[in-house]
Write a structure and sequence with these properties.
By secondary structure, the chain is an alpha+beta fold. It folds into two domains: 30 residues; 156 residues, PUA domain-like, CATH 2.30.280.20. Strands 3, 4, 5, 6, 7, 8, 9 and 10 form an eight-stranded mixed beta sheet that branches. It has a two-stranded antiparallel sheet with strand order 1-2. A hairpin with a 2-residue loop joins β1 and β2. The chain is elongated and about 70 Å long.
C-alpha cells in the first residue's frame, strides 16, 4: 500500500519501505548528517534485534520483554492507541485478543482493588476481575468463552504502578494463557469510605503456555527493593 508523503517529515513510508523524503535526500551529501543518520539506524536495528527479533507465536512481541501500554497497542496491531481505556484488561474484537494487565503489588490504601492476583507457581496464575463483575458480565464473555472462540489471552505483569519520573513503568510480556479452572463469582465484604459493602468479582486460574522465567518470578515475589532483572536491558 502506498504511503503518504509528509513535506514536514524527514521520512515517509512507501510500499512498506522507509524512505527519506525528496527534500531531505540532498542532506546525504552532508557528512555529519550521514554519520548521525547511520548511527540512528544502527541503534534501531540493535533495538529491534533485542526486543522484536524472536517473535512470540503470531505476535510482534518477544516473551519476557517489557512494553508500555502504547507499545502493546501497536504490537497487537490495534487500530488506535487505547492506552487510556485498557485498564486491567480489554477485549479487542478486530484482533480477537484479550490482554490482561496486572500490577503485582497492590495499593494497600485501596481495599476494593486488592485483587487476588498471584502466581501459584511458575505455570499457574490466579486472577480476579474488576470489582462488581460476575460470570454473567458481558465484558468477560470473550474471556470465559476463549477456547470456543479462539480468543488469544495474553498476560502482562509489572511489579507495581509506581512510575519513575515521567515514564510509566512497563509490563513484562509473559505469553499466552489458557483457562485452568472453572470461573466463579466470589463475594467479598469490603470497607470503603468507612462503610462496608459486598462486592462481586470473578475468580479464575490460568495456565501459562510458557513457564515463567525464574528470575522474573523471584523478582515479582520478592520485596519492593529487589532489582528488576531487565533494568539494564
Amino acid at each position: 500500500m502506498m504511503g503518504k508523503w509528509d513535506i514536514n517529515s524527514s521520512f515517509a513510508f512507501t510500499d512498506n519501505n522507509l524512505n527519506l523524503t525528496s527534500n531531505n535526500i540532498e542532506l546525504l551529501n552532508n557528512t555529519k548528517f550521514k554519520e548521525e543518520l547511520n548511527s540512528l539506524l544502527d541503534y534501531f536495528i540493535r533495538k529491534n534485534e533485542l526486543f522484536y527479533s524472536s517473535r512470540y507465536k503470531q505476535t510482534d512481541m518477544c516473551l519476557n520483554s517489557q512494553y508500555s501500554y502504547k507499545d502493546i497497542c501497536q504490537l497487537l496491531n490495534y487500530d488506535s492507541n487505547l492506552t487510556s481505556v485498557l485498564g486491567g484488561y480489554r477485549y479487542n474484537k478486530e484482533t480477537n485478543t484479550f490482554p490482561i494487565f496486572v500490577n503485582y503489588e497492590k495499593n494497600p490504601n485501596l481495599n476494593s482493588t486488592k485483587y487476588e492476583d498471584k502466581f501459584i507457581n511458575k505455570k499457574i496464575f490466579s486472577w480476579e476481575s474488576k470489582k462488581d463483575r460476575t460470570i454473567e458480565s458481558k465484558e468477560l464473555s470473550p474471556l470465559l468463552n476463549s477456547k470456543t472462540n479462539n480468543v488469544a489471552i495474553y498476560l502482562f505483569v509489572r511489579k507495581n504502578n509506581i512510575d519513575r519520573g515521567n515514564e510509566a513503568k512497563k509490563f513484562y510480556f509473559l505469553g499466552q494463557l489458557g483457562v485452568a479452572s472453572t470461573p466463579k463469582t466470589v463475594t467479598k465484604l469490603i470497607k470503603e469510605n468507612s462503610k462496608e459493602r459486598k462486592i462481586n468479582y470473578v475468580d479464575m486460574q490460568f495456565y501459562l503456555y510458557d513457564e515463567l522465567r525464574q528470575d522474573i518470578y523471584d523478582y515479582l515475589e520478592a520485596n519492593l527493593a529487589e532489582e528488576d532483572p531487565n533494568e539494564n536491558n
